Amino acid sequence: xxFPRVLLILAVxxxxxxxxxxxxxxxxxxxxxxxxxxQLKELQTDVNKxxxxxxxxxxxxxxxxxxxxxxERSFELRIKDRERKLISKVYEALKKMEEGTYGICExxxxxxxxxxxxxxxxxxxxxxxxxxMEAEERREETILQTGGAANQMT
Length: 154
Known about the structure:
The protein is an all-alpha fold. Helix content is 67%, strand content 0%.
């Protein structure tokens, strides 16, 4: 995605339309790259660790113990899956950093604030677009819930 007009405004003024500082300086970029690299290293270490409860294949004599074990396995597998997804997001952020597109909102094309990037280095949306997306999701959820309730009454 390219946003030439917005990027031109950012390049000339160094500020977004909202007036907030939008360009990352070299120190910010280096700090964020270090954060991403550390996060990647930590995630890769965690993902490569064997999940202890997955090693046990024999059924337990008590059905409640078996159910607890299965629940733990499921939880651990969900965590591993989330870690794998986060690893791909970190790689994507590092790739964008190399391309020079890191920190630009994928929705509106404006710069993502350095403060937001420090809080969530893999983010691809500025705070305004993320808030708008979440508000839309809540509206859709409300419509589904109220529509579902209306359908149950008839």
